[in-house]
Design a protein that fits this description.
Rossmann fold; binds zinc ion; Mut7-C_RNAse_dom
């Protein structure tokens, strides 16, 4: 386990953990999701890009662990539990609430940039437009995000996670 992981860990998430990948991206972590590549290619990616692998595959876990890299095999099965387990495994103590941490697209891992809400008026529901100041667009898939109920729900989850990271 290298200290280089601590500041800005980057992840690769193995099959069956797609929702975990989405959440990590929304928390601001560079996170790849690989559901359909061979173990050999996945190992190559982990080693070359210095990514932390999160996997449910015990055999793959042991193969990577023997190479001395940080690989996480969650024992919890609930999404919140898995997130707490892997963030603790990376010695992360706190994640800023959104929109502060909102820098990556949950769908594709692309970077987000801030846009004037008037420029995305057609993509924001009519009833939320008046209540927001800023919107965010993905540089890759062009999806638009705004500070609405979805973000409030993620912040409730983040508060629970932050509480558990401290204890
Ligand atoms: Zn995107």
């Amino acid at each position: 386990m290298s200290l280089a992981y601590n500041n800005h860990p980057v992840f690769v998430i193995d099959a069956m953990l797609g929702n975990i990948a989405k959440k990590l991206r929304l928390f601001g972590f560079d996170t790849k999701y690989e559901s359909n590549i061979s173990d050999d290619l996945l190992i190559k990616e982990v080693l070359q890009q210095k990514r932390i692998l999160v996997t449910k595959d015990r055999q793959l876990y042991h193969r990577l662990k023997s190479k001395g890299v940080l690989v996480i095999l969650p024992s919890r099965i609930d999404e919140t539990g898995i997130l707490i387990e892997l963030l603790k495994g990376c010695q992360i103590k706190h994640i800023d609430l959104l929109p502060n941490s909102l820098t990556r697209c949950g769908m594709c891992n692309g970077s987000l940039y801030t846009v004037n809400k008037n420029s995305v008026i057609k993509e924001i529901p009519y009833n939320v437009f008046d209540h927001i100041d800023t919107a965010y667009r993905c540089t890759n898939c062009l999806k638009v995000y705004w500070n609405g109920t979805h973000i409030s729900h993620i912040n409730i989850l983040l508060e629970e996670i932050n509480y558990n990271l401290k204890v």
